[in-house]
Amino acid sequence: MLLLVDAGNTRIKWALAPVGAAPGDWIAHGAVPHAELERLVPAWAGHGVTRAIVSNVAGAAMAAQLQAVLPVAPTWFTARAELAGLVNRYRDPAQLGSDRFAAALGARTLAPGKALVVATCGTATTVDAVSAGGEFLGGMILPGLGLMLGALARGTAQLPQVVPGAAPPTFADHTSDAILSGCLAAQAGAIERACARLPAALCIVSGGAAPGIAPLLTVPHWMLDNIVLVGLHAAAPHLD
Predict the structure, then answer these.
(1) Per residue in 107-124, is it b (16+ CB within 10 Å) or e — as a string?
(2) Catalytic residue set
(3) Residue 190 CA to chain centroid, in angstroms?
(4) What is the rounded distance in angstroms from the CA atom of residue 224 to the CA atom of residue 230?
(5) CATH 3.30.420.40: does it fit domain 112-226?
(6) Considering only CA atoms, which of 50, 61, 106 is closest in space to residue 227?
(7) Which of 44, 68, 134, 143 could form a disulfide with 147 if both were Cys (CB 3.0 to 4.6 A apart)?
(8) Residue 240: its pLDDT value, please?
């Protein structure tokens, strides 16, 4: 059994797949916040895991914690100059976040031969471009929806902390709604700006905040859960 793990800034997402299964064909998957890492031990037990592929952008301490609970020694997934037909055009290919490279690979696996804008909306929002020929062109990183809302509450004297929710009117008539409207518009605007620069691209939206952001998009888009895990799964046959 193959174990796939995406350790992000807030949550740890995972999936279990039979060896040789198509990317995204999983027998189980889930997510836990960092503080509940120990819950993964029973979730993974008894499945006969023989291989684990892990993308970790949560730092060295999280890597050590994962090492302690994984049922086998992991393969740590990192960005590289080329993998499975995806060419990394980052100035320093190794500097690209493993999650962004995996998300691009997952998107290309599910939509081969298409230009892509891949938006992953989590603690941070990343919006990346992939050419139809399979080149990772680069992208944007901006604060995620929750970070934007929190920054306004912390950095101002009178603005309240707002919890993400259903999109209010664009021109809101209440301060909390105005904050949420502005932050959602900023998220959607970044995605739409990327799509405008790559007009033939298919827009793929993923991540925990995606359900709140995607309805505001005026460009055609495809919402996909766990795109990073799909990319890790696609990478598996190409990793030592």
Answers:
(1) bbbbbeeebbbbbbbbbb
(2) 99
(3) 16
(4) 10
(5) yes
(6) 106
(7) 143
(8) 76
Residue type, 156: T
Q: Give average pLDDT by consecutive 10-residue segment, the chain, 240 residues.
A: 97 96 96 96 95 97 96 97 97 97 98 97 97 98 96 93 88 93 97 96 96 95 96 95
- Largest distance between two CA atoms of the chain: 56
Task: Identify whether the C-beta of residue 74 lies closer than 8 Å to the C-beta of residue 42.
Answer: no
All CATH 3.30.420.40 domain ranges in the chain, comma separated:
2-76, 112-226
Q: pTM here?
A: 0.95
- Kindly state the tokens that stand for 93: 């290919």
In CATH terms, the superfamily for domain 2-76 is: ATPase, nucleotide binding domain (3.30.420.40)
pLDDT of residue 167: 86
